[in-house]
Amino acid sequence: MESHTPVSTADRIKTQRPFSLSRFFLRWEWLMIVLIAIVGVINTRISPYFLNVVNLFDMTFNFMEKGLMALPMTMIIISGNIDLSVASALAMSAATMALLFKHGVSIWIGAGIALGIGIFGGWLNGKIITRIQLPALAVTLGTYALYRGMAFVMLGDIPVKGYPAAFTYIGQGYIAGTPVPVPLIIFLIAAVLFGLLLHKTSFGRKVYAIGNNEDACRYAGVDVERVKVILYMLSGAMAALAAIVMAARFGSTRTDIATGYELHVITAVVLGGTDIFGGRGTMLGTILSVFLLGIIEWGMSLKMIPGQVQQIVSGSVLILAILLPNVLGKMMKR
Q1: pLDDT tens-digit profile of 79-136?
Q2: Is 332 exposed, middle or buried (CB count within 10 Å of its CB: 0-12, 13-18, 19+)?
Q3: Beta strands in the chain (DSSP E)
Q4: What is the pLDDT of residues 63-84, one digit of tens each?
Q5: Domains of the chain (ranges plus CATH)?
Q6: Where are the membrane-spanning stretches (predicted)?
């Protein structure tokens, strides 16, 4: 009598195909690398100082917070969901920390509480989505307004300043004796951890499986609701961490902090090759996309292009990022 080894839904998602050199070099990550090189050459023409090692490292100060939020957003979008409230969760966490500091609480205790607030905000998103069975788009659009409003209620229009040097080092400092910024190291450590979580654990396989066929996952015994809640809690945690890094970088906190960042974060994820409809994507693609967008923004800043025009560019890149995978996908299937 033959024995049959059960195959999980997550394992059935990926079908093995023979290795193809053409498909390998058509991988989305290679496109990201080529685009980074092209934009780098263009920026070199704009400013001869672009390739200076110190300038290259300093450039990363400007987009590490977006990168931190893009990591869990990758997993959320792969699962077939979305989180529009990330930037507002950042603002709410930053405002909480600033309010506590303003009233004499240690900045480190405030940072810990802010982290908890971010996680709670993510948990609330996940619970509303899974318990009430509402679309993630609608729920997080609501909490987008709720969390930003709470930040305004806590701080009003008056910024909080005067953070201690030991705290601002997190956002402004360098690793001793090197030009490597502390925020870059924080991002790279987080990127490795999220990469391992998505690509090397059963939890990550469940994320892919849910994005491909949520109903099949339920029939296979996957606790879909639990996975979703965890994903949103991770998103809240990274939004809070980004709030800490950002407040430390600016040395102050305002309620309009990170306004519009949700667009940049989603653009980074989709441009990195994650399917906006779920089921496909890689953490490496998102990481490369974060650097690509950061270099583009840095180049526009060198050219002193107005912020409104930069916003138009970001929106255009998002549209192209949604359309281009369909073209590349058809080429890879040949």
Answers
A1: 999 999 999 999 999 999 999 999 999 999 999 999 999 999 999 999 999 999 999 9
A2: middle
A3: 160-161, 252-253
A4: 999 999 999 999 999 999 999 9
A5: 62-333 (1.10.3470)
A6: 30-54, 75-101, 107-124, 136-155, 175-198, 229-251, 284-302, 308-328
